[in-house]
Write a structure and sequence with these properties.
17 strands; single chain; 28% strand
């Protein structure tokens, strides 16, 4: 499986642009010998397209496009994608277009100032046909799955000021039930892609192991949302989960994790840990 990081907060080459966002391109081999191309997340704007062009990748060749959750730094590139590849249809949670805002719990909100969600006009102005709303687990084709928000095998992580709006127009903590994941099975391994792991990276790892217990190896790629000091608890949960079988696990992280936390993750886990910079090409 070939994975290309199209958008990330950092890069190691001046060839590529960076932003606070995440996007990756996945090429996986099908049982018939051909390959499936998958675009997972679209970053904060059109930057992922610029990096894709530098790498010779054509978004019009995507068989599937998936949005991990309803935040701008993963879905801000939806409109540029539709312009570049007009026939694209995006798979996403039915809750992704709900209001998602920043602030403190209990605070009254002012939408335009606090919005961290998606551009709602994409779906309200006749764009429904461009989105495939998913509920529960969805099989895209043999070996390619969409999985719903991870159940809490471990305590949910702190998500800071990332909130959503309740019916009384006050902010309440987001449950991130609008988060979905892409699982791709190839050659005895399962690779799971997450946008930010707001439901907890250890919960996501526990979910993929439980759902695909026959996998010889597991890999998780994406943002792990472990940038804050409180997230060390999440690293501890992941350390506990992988203990005794570190060789079965590998992790590629970046974006909302930050370089420092990825280094801490590498120091604490015996499994392989890699930073996925913008422009990185990975083979798993």
């Amino acid at each position: 499986m070939k994975i290309t990081i199209l958008s990330d907060n950092e890069c190691e080459s001046g060839r590529f642009l960076t932003e606070h966002g995440f996007s990756c391109w996945i090429e996986t081999e099908r049982s018939g010998g051909d390959r499936a191309n998958i675009l997972f997340d679209m970053g904060a704007g059109d930057l992922f397209l610029a990096n894709a062009a530098r790498l010779g990748l054509d978004m019009r060749t995507a068989h599937y496009a998936v949005l991990s959750h309803g935040h701008y730094d993963h879905g801000g590139g939806i409109a540029p994608l539709f312009k570049e590849a007009p026939h694209t249809r995006i798979h996403l949670s039915s809750r992704a277009f709900e209001p998602h805002l920043r602030g403190e719990a209990g605070e009254k909100y002012y939408y335009s100032e606090k919005n961290v969600g998606l551009n709602s006009t994409l779906i309200t102005k006749g764009g429904e046909a461009r989105f495939h709303m998913v509920e529960g687990e969805t099989l895209l084709e043999e070996g390619i799955f969409l999985l719903p928000a991870a159940p809490p095998a471990y305590p949910l992580p702190p998500n800071g000021s990332l909130c959503m709006v309740d019916k009384k127009k006050r902010l309440v903590p987001d449950d991130f039930e609008h988060e979905i994941y892409l699982a791709v099975r190839e050659g005895g391994q399962t690779v799971l892609f997450t946008g930010c792991a707001h439901r907890g990276i250890a919960n996501i790892a526990a979910m993929v192991r439980s759902r695909f217990p026959d996998s010889e190896k597991y890999a998780i790629v994406g943002g792990f949302h472990i940038k804050s000091d409180e997230s060390d608890e999440q690293i501890g949960f992941l350390e506990e989960l992988t203990r005794g079988e570190p060789e079965k696990w590998s992790f590629v992280s970046g974006h909302c994790s930050g370089r420092e936390k990825v280094e801490r993750l590498r120091a604490r886990l015996s499994s392989s840990v890699t930073y996925g910079f913008a422009g990185s090409i990975l083979y798993i």
